[in-house]
Amino acid sequence: MSADKLTHVDDSGNPRMVDVGSKKLSRRTARAQTIVDLGEEIMSLMDDGDIKTAKGPVFHTAIVAGTNAVKQTANLIPFCHPLPVDGCRIEIEKHSAREIRISCEVSVEAKTGVEMEAIVGSSLAAITIYDMCKALSHDIVIRETKLMKKTGGKRDFSR
Predict the structure, then answer these.
(1) What is the pLDDT of residues 76-98, one digit of tens each?
(2) Which among 153, 157, 145 is positioned nearest to 66, based on CA atoms?
(3) d(CA 104, CA 107)
(4) 5: exposed, middle or buried (C-beta count within 10 Å: 0-12, 13-18, 19+)?
(5) Pairing of the two strands 99-110 and 157-158
(6) Model's pTM, two decimal places?
(7) For this structure, is 131 an active site residue?
(8) What is the reported pLDDT for 4?
(9) Residues lower than pLDDT 50 in the chain
(10) Burial class (CB in 10 A: 0-12, 13-18, 19+), 34
(11) Domains with residue ranges and CATH for the chain
(12) Could you say which of 47, 131, 139, 156 is catalytic?
Protein backbone atom coordinates (compact mmCIF):
# COMPACT_ATOMS: atom_id res chain seq x y z
CA MET A 1 0.00 0.00 0.00
CA SER A 2 1.44 3.40 -0.91
CA ALA A 3 1.71 6.24 1.59
CA ASP A 4 -0.80 8.35 -0.37
CA LYS A 5 -3.52 5.84 0.59
CA LEU A 6 -2.76 5.85 4.32
CA THR A 7 -5.31 7.95 6.17
CA HIS A 8 -3.09 8.79 9.15
CA VAL A 9 -0.35 10.44 7.09
CA ASP A 10 -0.61 13.94 5.61
CA ASP A 11 0.69 15.05 2.17
CA SER A 12 4.12 15.74 3.69
CA GLY A 13 4.37 12.28 5.22
CA ASN A 14 3.71 13.46 8.77
CA PRO A 15 1.44 11.46 11.09
CA ARG A 16 -1.97 12.95 11.83
CA MET A 17 -5.37 12.23 13.23
CA VAL A 18 -8.01 12.00 10.51
CA ASP A 19 -10.54 14.85 10.60
CA VAL A 20 -13.98 13.23 10.66
CA GLY A 21 -15.85 16.49 11.26
CA SER A 22 -17.64 16.49 7.91
CA LYS A 23 -18.68 12.83 8.06
CA LYS A 24 -22.24 11.85 8.93
CA LEU A 25 -23.14 9.90 12.02
CA SER A 26 -23.96 6.29 11.30
CA ARG A 27 -24.41 3.03 13.18
CA ARG A 28 -21.09 1.18 13.20
CA THR A 29 -20.21 -2.21 14.60
CA ALA A 30 -17.09 -4.34 14.66
CA ARG A 31 -16.29 -7.84 15.89
CA ALA A 32 -12.77 -9.11 16.53
CA GLN A 33 -11.53 -12.39 17.88
CA THR A 34 -8.43 -13.68 19.60
CA ILE A 35 -7.43 -17.33 19.90
CA VAL A 36 -5.49 -18.36 23.01
CA ASP A 37 -3.76 -21.71 23.41
CA LEU A 38 -3.97 -22.44 27.13
CA GLY A 39 -2.83 -26.05 26.83
CA GLU A 40 -4.77 -29.10 27.91
CA GLU A 41 -3.70 -28.87 31.56
CA ILE A 42 -5.20 -25.41 32.08
CA MET A 43 -8.22 -26.26 29.91
CA SER A 44 -8.89 -29.26 32.18
CA LEU A 45 -9.51 -26.78 35.01
CA MET A 46 -12.47 -25.25 33.16
CA ASP A 47 -15.63 -25.74 35.17
CA ASP A 48 -19.04 -24.31 34.34
CA GLY A 49 -17.58 -22.18 31.51
CA ASP A 50 -14.77 -20.54 33.50
CA ILE A 51 -11.45 -21.28 35.17
CA LYS A 52 -11.21 -20.46 38.87
CA THR A 53 -7.80 -19.47 40.21
CA ALA A 54 -6.50 -17.86 43.40
CA LYS A 55 -6.84 -14.55 41.52
CA GLY A 56 -10.55 -15.22 40.89
CA PRO A 57 -12.70 -16.32 37.95
CA VAL A 58 -10.44 -15.97 34.92
CA PHE A 59 -12.93 -15.47 32.09
CA HIS A 60 -15.22 -13.17 34.05
CA THR A 61 -12.27 -11.00 34.98
CA ALA A 62 -11.07 -10.98 31.35
CA ILE A 63 -14.50 -9.82 30.17
CA VAL A 64 -14.40 -6.88 32.59
CA ALA A 65 -10.80 -6.03 31.59
CA GLY A 66 -11.59 -6.27 27.87
CA THR A 67 -14.64 -4.05 28.24
CA ASN A 68 -12.57 -1.47 30.13
CA ALA A 69 -9.93 -1.62 27.38
CA VAL A 70 -12.57 -0.95 24.71
CA LYS A 71 -13.50 2.25 26.56
CA GLN A 72 -9.81 3.27 26.81
CA THR A 73 -8.77 2.60 23.19
CA ALA A 74 -8.29 6.28 22.30
CA ASN A 75 -5.89 6.60 25.25
CA LEU A 76 -3.84 3.65 24.03
CA ILE A 77 -3.65 4.20 20.26
CA PRO A 78 -2.50 7.72 19.34
CA PHE A 79 -4.81 8.51 16.39
CA CYS A 80 -7.99 6.78 17.55
CA HIS A 81 -10.90 9.12 18.16
CA PRO A 82 -12.53 8.94 21.60
CA LEU A 83 -15.90 7.29 20.97
CA PRO A 84 -19.10 7.13 22.99
CA VAL A 85 -19.35 3.34 22.91
CA ASP A 86 -22.99 2.24 22.83
CA GLY A 87 -22.39 -1.45 23.40
CA CYS A 88 -19.63 -3.96 24.08
CA ARG A 89 -20.05 -7.70 24.35
CA ILE A 90 -17.19 -10.08 25.03
CA GLU A 91 -17.68 -13.84 24.88
CA ILE A 92 -15.13 -16.51 25.74
CA GLU A 93 -15.68 -20.08 24.64
CA LYS A 94 -13.82 -23.34 24.21
CA HIS A 95 -12.38 -23.51 20.67
CA SER A 96 -10.55 -26.85 20.89
CA ALA A 97 -9.08 -29.18 23.50
CA ARG A 98 -6.26 -26.64 24.03
CA GLU A 99 -7.71 -23.31 22.91
CA ILE A 100 -10.31 -20.68 23.73
CA ARG A 101 -11.81 -18.09 21.41
CA ILE A 102 -12.44 -14.57 22.66
CA SER A 103 -14.95 -12.56 20.65
CA CYS A 104 -15.44 -8.83 21.21
CA GLU A 105 -18.28 -6.98 19.49
CA VAL A 106 -18.55 -3.20 19.81
CA SER A 107 -21.22 -0.81 18.55
CA VAL A 108 -21.45 2.96 18.30
CA GLU A 109 -23.36 5.74 16.57
CA ALA A 110 -20.45 7.86 15.35
CA LYS A 111 -18.48 9.36 12.46
CA THR A 112 -15.76 6.71 12.60
CA GLY A 113 -15.62 2.97 13.11
CA VAL A 114 -14.93 0.79 16.11
CA GLU A 115 -12.57 -1.80 14.63
CA MET A 116 -9.71 -0.80 16.91
CA GLU A 117 -11.96 -0.92 19.97
CA ALA A 118 -13.00 -4.49 19.14
CA ILE A 119 -9.40 -5.54 18.48
CA VAL A 120 -8.16 -3.92 21.70
CA GLY A 121 -11.00 -5.52 23.69
CA SER A 122 -10.31 -9.07 22.53
CA SER A 123 -6.54 -8.58 22.89
CA LEU A 124 -6.69 -7.22 26.42
CA ALA A 125 -9.07 -9.98 27.49
CA ALA A 126 -6.47 -12.47 26.19
CA ILE A 127 -3.63 -10.72 28.02
CA THR A 128 -5.69 -10.76 31.23
CA ILE A 129 -6.23 -14.51 30.87
CA TYR A 130 -2.48 -14.95 30.41
CA ASP A 131 -1.81 -12.90 33.54
CA MET A 132 -4.31 -14.84 35.63
CA CYS A 133 -3.09 -18.26 34.44
CA LYS A 134 0.68 -17.72 34.22
CA ALA A 135 1.19 -19.25 37.67
CA LEU A 136 -0.17 -22.48 36.20
CA SER A 137 1.93 -22.37 33.00
CA HIS A 138 4.10 -20.01 30.98
CA ASP A 139 3.42 -22.10 27.89
CA ILE A 140 0.27 -20.08 27.09
CA VAL A 141 0.28 -18.68 23.55
CA ILE A 142 -1.89 -15.82 22.33
CA ARG A 143 -2.19 -17.10 18.75
CA GLU A 144 -3.99 -14.53 16.68
CA THR A 145 -6.18 -11.49 16.81
CA LYS A 146 -8.16 -10.45 13.77
CA LEU A 147 -11.10 -8.39 12.67
CA MET A 148 -13.96 -10.70 11.80
CA LYS A 149 -16.64 -8.23 10.73
CA LYS A 150 -17.43 -4.54 10.53
CA THR A 151 -20.51 -2.65 9.41
CA GLY A 152 -21.15 1.03 8.74
CA GLY A 153 -18.90 3.60 7.17
CA LYS A 154 -17.68 3.42 3.57
CA ARG A 155 -17.81 -0.36 3.28
CA ASP A 156 -18.72 -3.41 5.28
CA PHE A 157 -16.29 -6.27 5.86
CA SER A 158 -16.79 -9.88 6.83
CA ARG A 159 -14.29 -12.72 7.13
Answers:
(1) 999 999 999 999 999 999 999 99
(2) 145
(3) 10
(4) exposed
(5) unpaired
(6) 0.90
(7) yes
(8) 52
(9) 1-3
(10) buried
(11) 26-151 (3.30.70.640)
(12) 131
